[in-house]
Amino acid sequence: MSKKISSTNQPKEETNLKGTLIMVMIVGIVILVMWFGAYGLFLSR
Amino acid sequence: MELFNFSKKESRLYMAFMHVTFISLLIGGLMGLLQTLVRSGKYTLPFNIDYYTILTTHGVILGLVLTTFFIVGFQFSLMGKTVGISDKQLLWGWISFWVMLVGTVLSAWMILTGEASVLYTFYTPLRAHPIFYIGLTLVIVGSWIAAFTNFRQLYVWKKAHKGEKSPLLAFMVVINMIMWFVATLGVAYSVIVLILPWSLGYVATVNVLLTRTLFWYFGHPLVYFWLLPAYMAWYAIIPKIIGGKLFSDSLARLAFILLLMFSIPVGFHHQLTEPGIDPTWKFIQVVLTFMVVIPSLMTAFSLFATFEIAGRRKGYKSLFGWFKKLPWKDVRFLAPFVGMVAFIPGGAGGIINASHQVNSLVHNTIWITGHFHLTVATTVILTFFGIAYWLIPHLTGRRLTPRLNKLGIIQTLIWAIGMTIMSTSMHIQGLIGGPRRSAFSEYAGGDQVSTWISYQMWQAVGGIILFVGILLMFYIFIQLAFFAPRGYEEYPIAEEEIDAEKSPKILENWYLWIGITIALILFAYTIPMIDIIKHSPPGSIPFDWPIGRS
Amino acid sequence: MHLHKYEKVWLVFGLASLVLFLLIIGFAAFWKGTHPQSHIETIDPQNVEANESFQPENLGLTEVADGKYVVNIVASAFNYDFGKEEDGTATKTIRVPKGSTVLFQVTSKDVVHGFQVAGTNVNMMVEPGHISRFESVMKNGGEFTVVCNEYCGIGHHLMFGTVEVY
Question: How many beta-carbon pairs below 8 A join chains A and B?
Fold first, then answer.
């Protein structure tokens, strides 16, 4: 478990969250693609 | 963090709610299966059972009964765990349970005898039997008793812990129950003051648009009432299961406050194609609807960050090493995780639905059914299942054995496959115009209709797979409740980092947040409501068989 | 309260997307006038004939100007009244040329109905006491099923019609 390792002394700003940023950006792209797809279909009708 | 142990009689209360939940799942799931079979065109219901009786049962029992019982029971257990419950509060818990159950039985009796084939939205001037409305009212009143008991529980704890911040989960429960109470006031007014006297014949006519507007004032917060308990588990329970810590106590609280403020003044996005509401006010509520997306964006970040930080602490250094090493073989994590994934297309679809004029692309098409089978029937329900795997054995003094864990994983995969097939085919069929809430029909024939029917075949395939999933889940529930080996199952509640930043006091300023919530509701609804009442047409007389009852 | 710098990036991105969506639909709604239908015009559901548009002889398709049409429809469980053909039988199909502008006007005599010309943007709630109105340019040719997409009783799925764009 994580209790063994507690190297939490450095400030949060240093926490490496690169993977998180990439993951949420994928979520964002899904939202954009789906929305513009639906809007395009709306305009074509 | 101080946690309370459950006494035997306390566990019994929480389990009572769970029993109703899983019985509802079985009945409601069977209805869902039958619907997809009928809509395939290859199957006719026996004994002259009407499709819409089954559809009403499915919506009411899964959308209103299962969800409310699970949520009230789960939230009681969260309060019991984090702030404790007194004997008197326990008694009120039982009163809320019985009032809800009596209401459920009354409504179910009317639906099953064909006296209330009005679907779970019960739009006037379709008229159901008065007992149906009385039953629904009791379910809501029962949930109010639970809400006020929860408020009392936190209040008592706060008095004994002056100056301390309330436990995160207790805070979240209270937020959800405040939202629920404020929202249900609208539908309660509609049912008790407008619909019930009219259904009894004391009043000749009803204002259709007013009852619809009050329904949707409640209807959107209803879906957030389902979602928030899932968020509770994501924020404050999943981190413990994966061996991590809370990402941020204050950001979690802030997300819940935003959800409280923006869940309610948004009902018009369900009424965008309504003839009697000013389009400018529709647009204003569209903007408010987009605001409620923000706390979900925050949630997405928090979750990934929780996973990444926990993984990196365990020593996985590469960009996605932490992701690969998540506890995929632990169903307590896997089921909610699949739920989170479903919320990505589910949430994106929701933004499309709420996009003002674009709504006409999807309004009342089966796209909408596909949408909420992703959000509530995957995201929410898989998270609820994920909770049940540890909550039920914790309550019954048993253990989630490796075998049951494995069955749970299979259940999750079955659900993911079945729902991908069913929901995707619903989304596509909806985009090409296929309507929701309709029995099998070939309409006027033609290419368009035969394409719809081909997607309905796929929905039946998905429906069958999902029903297998429901049977498996019910089996797991019975095992965990009665047969699994005795032992201790952990009630996982995540802790804060040792050096966590202190949460600002303002986050617990209830007067402020409730005040803003009420102000936003008044802003979004006052003028359009005055308009609706001032410009109301002659009222509508009730319609029974063959329209309302069957 | 502390926000991680990547969370700031993400929230700015998310908010910007939402604002972009709102700008697009807001521009379309307030400058181009493509609101969802909302006309706030009322009618007595028990006497829809009092309104000229819904008198029996005015139901169905009328060409009001070159390439401009009006279709008046009375919805009731479980039928759309599109008026009558010359031989006296009930009209089931509305035929309009491609590219024409068609104003659909619908009201209900009984319960709530839906009116969707499936495959087009014509999609409205039809409620007793209100007149639903939506104007659309029929850009695409083909046969479109008109469906009642709000539950209206046991025959709900048998309530339909056809719009043919030729």
Answer: 76
The structural domain count of chain C equals 2
Are B279 and C129 inside 8 Å of each other by CB? no
Domain that holds residue C69: 48-165
Nearest-CB residue to A13 (from C5, C21, C139): C5
The tens digit of pLDDT for each residue in B170-196 reads: 999 999 999 999 999 999 999 999 999
Give the separation between CA B291 and CA B279, rounded to whole angstroms: 19
Eight-state DSSP code of residue A21: H
Query: Is there a cis peptide before residue B167, judged by omega within 30 degrees of 0?
Result: no
The pTM score is: 0.95
Q: What is the CATH number of the domain that holds C93?
A: 2.60.40.420
What's the pLDDT score for residue B409?
Answer: 98
B269: annotated active-site residue: no
B535 part of the active site:
no
Chain B, window 17-36: residues with a beta carbon less than 8 angstroms from a chain C beta carbon: none
Residues C1 and C60 grouped into a single domain: no
Q: Let me know whether C100 and C145 are in one domain.
A: yes
Query: B8-268+277-489+511-533 falls under which CATH superfamily?
Result: Cytochrome c oxidase-like, subunit I domain (1.20.210.10)
Judgement on whether residues C85 and C52 belong to the same structural domain of the protein: yes
Helix (H) or strand (E) run with residue C133 in it:
strand C132-137
| Same domain assignment for residues C20 and C87 | no
Q: Could you say which of B372, B389, B477, B491 is catalytic?
A: B372
Residue B519's contacts (CB-CB under 8 Å, 6 or more residues apart) are none
Pairing assessment for the beta strands C93-96 and C79-81 based on DSSP bridges: unpaired
Give me the pLDDT at residue A14, please. 62
**Phi and psi torsions of C103, nearest 5°:** -100, 115
Residues C26 and C52 in one domain: no
Beta-bridged to residue C104, according to DSSP, are: C71, C134
Q: Are residues C16 and C80 in the same domain?
A: no
CB C1 to CB B50 under 8 A? no
Rg of chain C over Cα atoms, rounded to whole angstroms, equals: 20
- pLDDT tens for residues B485-508? 999 999 999 998 888 888 888 898
Chain C contact partners (≥3 CB pairs within 8 A): A, B
For this structure, is B19 an active site residue?
A: no
User: Domain boundaries in chain B?
Assistant: 8-268+277-489+511-533
